Structures are given as C-alpha cells and as structure tokens.
Amino acid sequence: MEKHTALLIFESLSSGLRLDVYRLLVRKGMEGMVAGEIATTLDVPPNNLSFHFKALTQAGLLTVEQEGRFQRYRANIPLMLELIAYLTEECCAGQPQLCADLRRASGCSEAVLPPLFSTAGTSET
Based on the structure, what is the number of domains in the chain? Predict the structure, then answer.
C-alpha cells in the first residue's frame, strides 16, 4: 500500500458517522446492507448518508451494487487488511516476535491480532 492510499483511507474515516457505517458493514461481512437498513440501524436520515457513502466508496472502503431500486453496500475487508499490514509491517524493526509484550499491553484480543511468529517460524501465542 502506498502512503497516499493510507492517508485517503484515514481521511475518509475521520468522520464519526463514516466510521460507524464502516464498522457496521465490517460486522455484516459479505452480506452487506442496503442504504435504508444502514440509516435505520444508525438512526440517521437516509439523505444524510449519501455524502458519506460517496466518500467511503471513493476511498475504496466500500463497494456498492445495484439491487433493483436499492443499493447494497459492503465493506472492502481486503483493503482494511492491507491497511493493517501497512501499519504493522515494520513493527519492531520487521521482527514481530519482539512485539509480544506490546501486544499483551494493547488490550486487543489475541483472536483479532495477526499470528506472532518466532525466528524459527513457529507460532508464539
């Protein structure tokens, strides 16, 4: 991932509502949701969301598919994973096994963190 792409993604998520939309769609996975369902779930007037959908779609965070008169939005989860990899690829000078203490201090569940490998290539969870 290029720095410019990461910046575009962060900029698009800098709105609280956009972040809520994206996290909701991540939770829904490949099923996604139609715009009206998103508005209802987040208790937001539907016409307030179009601008936010456009920003998230332009950043590549959402895909949209026409279904009759509705539009179904889905989170671009592969892009999210690329962003996470971009942020963490040089963690501990490229030796992620050195980050074990930092991972425990983060408060994140090990289930959501990428596997940690030792220098021998075996998993250290």
Answer: 2
